[in-house]
Design brief:
The chain is α/β, with parallel strands linked by helices and 386 residues long. It is built from 8 helices and 27 strands. Helix 5 packs across helix 6 (252-258). The structure holds ligand LQZAQKY5 and molybdate ion. It comes from Cryptosporangium phraense. Residues 175-311 form the MoaB/Mog domain.
Length: 386
């Protein structure tokens, strides 16, 4: 462990909790339900109606009144406003989703019906095949609580409950500042250069975490340019890649000090990704500093940046997911190790040859296994998926 780490490293789990807890949630906005996929609910949503809205057929066939056989007296299709009433010994042909006439004892599916002219008969029905008004939802039922992710099924449920718009958290705005004289944005790097891998990686990660599409600003290893890139942004979060360590060209700490930022996390006791920073500017906006080594940057983003965005979005805690780690991993040592893993059948299998500067293993993996200092191979490990 370097001098830098021993001086101020925060435990990995503490850093995540701190990032999430310190964030003050963004405001809420009302948007059409159709635009709300992937957003985070800002307020509880209750059903405005009962579902089903009326007693309805669950099968195509005959709605029958009293014991059979029944005389077929009509037909009711889905969308019919007033299905009428059935006298005992009568039936109507009915479609799934159509309202059943009052007096309906059951719906007999076509497959179970014997039809002879205008008479229909069947064995006594084992099920009514009628869905009763309000059996799924009642007006006022809580459909989702604030902080829920608007998943595909939840959006469908909210529509069933009559929602046209939903209150969601404003997407946090992010500026992504990619530092490095050697870092190029397009094409093949020349001598001494390297292609920017963190730009696309962080863009994907933060958008997936619910932020607005970040603005990417590339700056050289220059103190004033970095300062301007941070100070000149009013984004909720400025993410800086590179410049987080102690090299001559690493200006982030000096710039943050000049800007009067408070360092809530300055180095994390994890491998890779320890030289990471979470700072709060005097105006309440955030700076997340990620190491330039790409896999280390990814781990740091999972450590401070994603929890910070979760906090800004006031997202409900993500479910903790643990799996046994199948395969050779060495003991974690004194810091938390983040190991790329593929998720198999009930186990997480480490992907070989992960290094802080390499993305191959992470790209072949589904996420990382979190091996905390007290982890032993007989315990399941927490998994963070990309
Ligand atoms: N004396 C010490 N040196 C270093 C320490 C330390 O504790 N003491 N920590 C090492 C660790 S661990 C890491 S990680 C790096 C972090 O360095 P920085 O965040 O300051 O990043 P840079 O120095 O700018 O770059 C490191 C490395 O990554 C490449 N890089 C940078 N940006 C990108 C990008 N956008 N896409 C792809 N690759 C990128 C860069 O070319 C360097 O190779 O510090 C160690 N040193
Ligand atoms: O954070 Mo550095 O991880 O060891 O490359």
């Amino acid at each position: 462990m370097t001098l830098l780490e021993t001086r101020r490293a925060t435990e990995w789990r503490t850093a995540r909790v701190r990032a999430r807890q310190l964030a003050r949630p963004t405001g809420c906005e009302s948007i059409p339900l159709a635009d709300a996929a992937g957003r985070v609910l800002g307020a509880e949503v209750c059903s405005r109606t009962q579902v089903p809205g009326f007693d309805t057929a669950a099968m195509d066939g005959y709605a029958v009144g009293g014991p059979g056989p029944w005389v077929v007296v009509g037909r009711v299709l889905a969308g019919a406003a007033s299905p009428g009433a059935l006298a005992p010994g009568t039936a109507v042909e009915i479609a799934t989703g159509a309202p059943v006439p009052s007096g309906t004892g059951a719906v007999v599916p076509y497959e179970e019906s014997r039809v002879d002219g205008d008479l229909v008969d069947a064995s006594p029905p084992r099920k009514t095949h009628v869905r009763r008004a309000g059996e799924d939802l009642r007006p006022g039922d809580v459909l989702a609580t604030a902080g829920s992710d608007l998943s595909a099924p939840l959006l469908g449920l909210l529509a069933q409950g009559g929602a046209d718009t939903v209150s969601v958290r404003r997407r946090p705005s992010v500026r992504l500042v990619v530092t490095g004289d050697e870092v190029v944005q397009l094409g093949l790097p020349g001598p001494g250069q390297v292609r920017d891998a963190l730009g696309p990686l962080v863009l994907a990660l933060v958008e997936r975490a619910g932020a607005a599409r970040p603005e990417l600003v590339a700056v050289p290893d220059d103190h004033d340019r970095l300062r301007e890139a941070i100070a000149g942004s009013d984004a909720d979060v400025v993410v800086v890649t590179g410049s987080s360590s102690v090299g001559r060209a690493d200006h982030l700490h000096a710039v943050l000090a000049e800007l009067g930022a408070s360092l809530h996390v300055d180095g994390v006791a994890c491998r890779p990704g320890h030289p990471q920073v979470l700072a709060e500017r005097p105006n309440g906006r955030w700076v997340a500093g990620l190491p330039g080594n790409p896999f280390a940057g990814l781990v740091a983003a999972l450590t401070v940046l994603v929890p910070l965005l979760d906090g800004l979005l006031s997202r409900a805690p993500r479910p903790v997911f643990r799996l046994p780690v199948g395969g050779p991993v060495s003991a974690p040592g004194s810091v938390t190790r983040l190991v790329p893993v593929r998720l198999g059948d009930g186990a997480a299998v480490p992907v070989a040859d992960a290094g802080p500067a390499r993305l191959r293993a992470a790209a072949d993996a589904d996420g990382v296994a979190v091996l905390e200092p007290d982890w032993t191979p007989d315990q399941p490990a927490e998994i963070l998926r990309w």
